[in-house]
Design goal:
Dihydrodipicolinate Reductase, domain 2; Rossmann fold; six-stranded parallel sheet; 31% helix
């Protein structure tokens, strides 16, 4: 047995680096800022919050249910589609119901302390900014925004309005994500200069060649409100040609789950459209690359370039099914330059260490440290860190961690934990703990682990990958100005165009 792998000692030359990273991480979590939060008049942990939600079904329903936890009050719900919002309306029948979130804030605002926001991505920033400007705490589903400019806007707004914030990337609340950071900072795999992260195909249709003709708008839906700041267009539920397209994708094993009630834009297919979502980059990339963002202290300020180095097509109005994004970061304090690769890769693992088989890379069931408990004991990874002395992998939303090959993890002893752990046990995807982490912050506790000071910068650099899909060659980003410097046309994807009356100003 290799005794070096079992040791928890830290060579002196790495001590200052680790100490600095730990201090930075704890500072980012806001551990030292509790007195200032209480001075701002936040509620006592023993008081009930008055919660509201923009989106009363689907994901925001789950967010609100976990934030509520049988303890807090739910006083108002807004959903542009009362069919979609039915689960929330049924569970909290005493909450006031609205279609327009602006009307909710106007009429029920005095009763609301905090708001859960789970609209389609293109309306995240609009809803969150309106709430923060009224002093409401906000929990915003991932990705924080649809564009990098909006992410910067919300980062600055959270600082300005001094409210408690959280992005819904619940893997950040799992012990395994923190353990991954502690292993990296202990120098166990040496200097990390490459990261490979991937997912498969989307579960919604993409690469459509045409938009079907108009369909009647369902009685329960306010289509104009659903569009929000996006350019007006007719509602459509699809046509026979679209349904044939769906059937062909299913036959090809592309994992499409067709929603018979609407079918084209709604209720989930919006994720693949340039105007409304960010495809798998924002839907799963923000989860899977979370350990890399935290452990490698990535930020827009250190981003040198972003490039889409592969795509199987470039549809007119949706993202392609397959792509590879390459992010190049310069040195960060105590860490060398690193290149991060993100793949939409339907063919299985996008990366394996040279000379290592998939079977060798996987964890060996019932051996090695148990973190969590994790949602899976054996199996492989969807994010691999390439170090000068070895490899580290994470899986799911950052809910599993291990060293590669599996035999190395089997003999490994974890470093002494020092990052603060999230409230609640790390089980499953840790969604409930992530929501309650935010509630704790709303009541005067430390800022939540993915508060906008962290989540805003993360979303900003991540969604520059969405920008790169539209362009050829490397894009150079000026973080101080928030613009692409070597491709003027690319900037139309950095900041959205707002419909008149929907413009945003922090």
């Amino acid at each position: 047995m290799n005794k070096k792998l079992k040791s928890n000692s830290i060579p002196r030359r790495r001590f200052l680096t680790r100490a600095g990273l730990a201090t930075a991480a704890v500072s980012a979590l806001g551990i030292r800022s509790v007195p200032s939060l209480k001075a701002l008049g936040y509620k006592s942990p023993n008081e009930r919050l008055n919660l509201a939600a923009i989106g009363a079904g689907g994901q925001p329903y789950g967010d609100l249910r976990d934030a509520h936890a049988g303890v807090e009050n739910v006083v108002a719900l807004a959903d542009v589609d009362w069919n979609r919002g039915a689960p929330g309306f049924a569970l909290w029948p005493n909450a006031r119901k609205y279609k327009d979130f602006r009307e909710m804030l106007d009429k029920s605002g005095n009763d609301i302390d905090a708001v859960v926001i789970g609209t389609p991505d293109h309306m995240h920033a609009t809803c969150a900014l309106a709430c923060m400007q009224l002093g409401k705490h906000v929990y915003v589903e991932k990705p924080l925004t649809r564009t990098p400019w909006e992410a910067r806007l919300l980062t600055e707004a959270a600082r300005k309005y001094k409210v408690a914030t959280q992005m819904g990337n619940q893997g950040y609340s799992h012990d395994a994500t923190r353990v991954a950071c502690e292993i990296l900072w202990a120098g166990e795999i040496g200097e990390v200069r490459e990261v490979h992260a991937w997912t498969g195909r989307p579960g919604w249709p993409q690469e459509m060649a045409r938009i079907p003709g108009p369909s009647p708008v369902p009685d329960t839906l306010d289509w104009d409100l659903w569009l929000g700041f996006a350019a007006p267009r007719p509602f459509t539920a699809g046509d026979d040609e679209y349904r044939t397209f769906i059937a062909e994708r299913k036959a090809q094993g592309k994992g499409v789950s067709n929603h018979a009630d609407y079918g084209f834009y709604l209720p989930e297919n919006w994720r693949g459209f340039f105007d409304f979502g960010s495809s798998l980059i924002g839907d799963w990339g923000v989860h899977i690359m979370g350990p890399a963002n935290w452990g490698l202290q990535l930020s827009p300020e250190h981003l040198i370039s972003v490039e889409c180095i592969h795509k199987d097509s470039l549809p007119q109005f949706t993202f392609p099914d397959e792509l590879t994004i390459k992010y190049e970061f310069g040195p960060r304090p105590g860490m060398p330059p690193v290149t991060v690769y993100w793949y939409h890769h339907p063919g299985g693992d996008a990366y394996l260490p040279p000379g290592m088989t998939a079977a060798e890379a996987e964890r060996i069931p019932e051996t090695g440290p148990q973190v969590g408990p994790s949602h899976r004991r054996g199996g492989g990874y969807n994010c691999i860190f390439v170090g000068s002395k070895g490899y580290l992998g994470t899986d799911g939303r950052g809910e599993d961690v291990g060293l590669l090959p599996g035999s190395r993890w089997a003999d490994y002893k974890l470093p002494q934990p020092y990052l603060p752990r999230s409230p609640g046990a790390s089980t499953g995807d840790n969604h409930a703990a992530h929501c309650r982490d935010w509630v704790r912050a709303c009541k005067g506790g430390a800022p939540a682990c993915s508060n906008f000071a962290i989540a805003g910068k993360y979303t900003e650099w991540l969604l520059l990958g969405s920008v790169a899909v539209h362009c050829e060659g490397k894009l150079a980003y000026d973080a101080a100005k928030g613009i692409i410097t070597n491709n003027h046309d690319a900037n139309k994807w950095v900041k959205p165009t707002f419909r008149k009356g929907w413009e945003l100003k922090g």
